[in-house]
Design a protein that fits this description.
Elements (H helix, E strand, L loop, with lengths): L1 E6 L5 H11 L5 E8 L5 H9 L3 E3 L8 H14 L4 E4 L8 H6 L4 E5 L11 H8 L3 E8 L9 E8 L6 H24 L3 E4 L2 E4 L9
Helix pairs in contact: 1-2, 1-6
The protein binds 5-O-phosphono-beta-D-ribofuranosylamine (GRF).
Length: about 210
């Protein structure tokens, strides 16, 4: 049984999707724990309700990002996870942490990368005027939202959309794609060659 840990900064609906998929037996893993950089994150409440161990490494208590990551790293190591899932984790992981877990950290991003990396991806997409957007699950490398892509799913951008309505439409795809990717990882079906990721077995969730 693989051990999956989650890092989340906020609401945690993607974390919940992983919890539920594990509970239903769709992901053959146990949830090793949640780490949050934000003591006010609703994700912590979700961990509590599900009986999942959680650890708060409060970013605001550290003088620098380096100091914060010096506390985050041992917290991550202590979970003995096979996979770390960044599910609404609103910081860029430093190189030291990324190198410690090569090929074992994935992230969910609410846009079709490489378009609209970084914060407020849905707002960026609206302002740019694209007609489709979506979500991307990818491996984490030392850049910002730049690692090899595991799965993407698209949604239309509709006339009259605002940031909230587009985010909601994308989120419903995120809740399908993230468990799908975690399941493939846990079943050892993912192969990475350079930037290209191939996955055997179950086809990805259809585009929206
Ligand atoms: C999601 O849109 C995710 O893609 C982005 O932040 C949001 C987090 O939502 N990185 P939630 O906390 O999982 O509900």
């Amino acid at each position: 049984m693989k051990r999956v840990a989650v890092l989340a900064s906020g609401r945690g609906s993607n974390f919940q999707a992983v919890i539920d998929a594990i509970g239903e037996g769709y992901i053959p893993a146990e949830c090793a724990g949640l780490i949050s950089d934000n003591p006010g994150a609703y994700a912590i409440e979700r961990a509590r309700k599900a009986g999942i161990p959680f650890f708060i490494v409060d970013y605001s208590l550290y003088a620098s990002k380096e100091d914060y990551e010096s506390a985050l790293l041992p917290a991550m190591q202590s979970l003995h996870a096979d996979l770390f899932v960044l599910a609404g984790y609103m910081r860029i992981l430093g190189a030291r942490i990324v190198r410690e877990f090569p090929g074992r950290i994935i992230n969910i991003h609410p846009a079709l990368l490489p378009s609209f990396a970084g914060l407020h991806a849905q707002r960026q997409a609206l302002e740019y005027g694209v007609k489709v957007s979506g979500c991307t699950v990818h491996f984490v490398d030392e850049g910002m939202d730049s690692g090899p892509i595991i799965v993407q799913s698209c949604v239309p951008v509709l006339p009259g959309d605002d940031e909230e309505s587009l985010s909601e439409r994308i989120l419903s795809r995120e809740h399908l794609c993230l468990p799908w990717a975690v399941r493939a990882f846990c079943e050892g079906r993912i192969r990475v060659e350079g930037r290209r990721v191939s996955i055997t077995g179950e086809p990805p969730p259809p585009p929206g």
